[in-house]
Amino acid sequence: MALNDDIVLLSNVPLFADISEDKLRLIAFGAERRRIFKGQELFREGAPADCAYAIASGSLSLSKAGFDGSETTVSTVSRGALLSELALISMVERKFTATAEEDSEVIRINRPLFRRMLEEYPEVAELVEARIRENLQAMIRRAGALAGRFA
């Protein structure tokens, strides 16, 4: 795919939605495309995460290991989804296993590349911080809605 196609894809990823095309070009140019085949794991739950992946084509199932060792699919994601976005900011562990449901392509965005963009464009850092804050607040609201179940 062409660089411009990757820029369009990244502009549709919620974390990058309001970032200008010239700034997304830095990410698209430095990112790495990777093809994964049906049934192949992109990453495994518990592994260290040093990058995020934007799904360019295809779909991936996200699963978690149960206490008995079985895998349970919790979601299926497709084009435009960003996996492990917190890995762009800090070292974290993968919270699930991602497996290709069909032949797929992803764009691998590594942490040093993302940090470079944040350093060169402080306004992007402010935008990303606001998006992460919104995501955390939404997660806290969802957890609060469940509090009654555990009281």
UniProtKB/TrEMBL annotation:
Organism: Ensifer adhaerens
Protein name: Cyclic nucleotide-binding domain-containing protein
Pfam families: cNMP_binding
GO MF term list: DNA-binding transcription factor activity
Domain Cyclic nucleotide-binding: 15-118
GO cellular component entries: cytosol
SUPFAM superfamilies: cAMP-binding domain-like
